[in-house]
């Protein structure tokens, strides 16, 4: 719960401090500008709010790691939902409106997470998780999207170190293997999810794990 709040607060703070011109810069998500990514974060915040008020009576079917499904191909930005995000982001016209909406809905999602009973069973995507596991899964979501936000904005602060470390742990469990110790947490996440291609030396260090990459999470 602590890492969810810390990661989410850091990401929203980074967005709030962006100058307007940065919203037109590319993000680390294929086909999305920074403004598109921020619009996606608004939708993410709505999903958190919806899930935390959707209780389930059955036993959990997923946990923080198995919540994630691995797709066969990286996103291109052409998916209908991805394209819708681009149109929604453009409709805001002014970055301050996007900032306001993210702060409004994002703050509510943060408060809901802090108030949630970790043991509460909640339903999302036709699966059941405890609220604690659901929020833990979102540490990976916030961390990866924070990396996407700063991909072409080197002057903007990145995600918290503890969020990077926890996200690496989750990604390694999803992969069923550990990344080389020489990889920083950030590099493990970027290379592991296909946000950056590995160098020849990194590919050699990855060994058999290289064949499993990238892990396209959804």
Name the overall outline: globular
Question: What is the radius of gyration computed over CA atoms, rounded to a whole number of angstroms?
Answer: 17 Å
Indicate the low-confidence ranges by residue numbers.
none
The run of helices and strands is: HHEHHEEHHHHE
What is the total tally of β strands?
4
Largest sheet, spatial ordering of strands: 1-4
Largest sheet, described in full?
2 strands, antiparallel
* Count of helical regions: 8
By secondary-structure content and strand pairing, the structural class works out as mainly alpha
Mean pLDDT: 96
> How far do the termini sit from each other?
21 Å
Measured by DSSP, the beta-strand proportion falls in 5-15%
Helix content: 40-55%
Sequence-ordered SSE layout with sheet pairings:
Blueprint: H1 2-16, H2 34-52, E1 70-71, H3 80-92, H4 95-115, E2 121-124, E3 127-130, H5 131-149, H6 161-175, H7 185-192, H8 200-206, E4 216-217
Helix pairs in contact: 1-4, 1-5, 2-3, 2-4, 2-5, 5-6, 6-7
Textual characterization of the structure:
- This protein has helices spanning 2-16, 34-52, 80-92, 95-115, 131-149, 161-175, 185-192, 200-206; strands spanning 70-71, 121-124, 127-130, 216-217.
- It is mainly α and 218 residues long.
- The strands form 2 sheets. It has a two-stranded antiparallel sheet. It has a two-stranded antiparallel ribbon with strand order 2-3.
- The longest helix is centred in the middle third of the chain and has 21 residues, at 95-115.
- It is globular.
- The two termini are 21 Å apart.
- The model has no long low-confidence stretch (mean pLDDT 96).
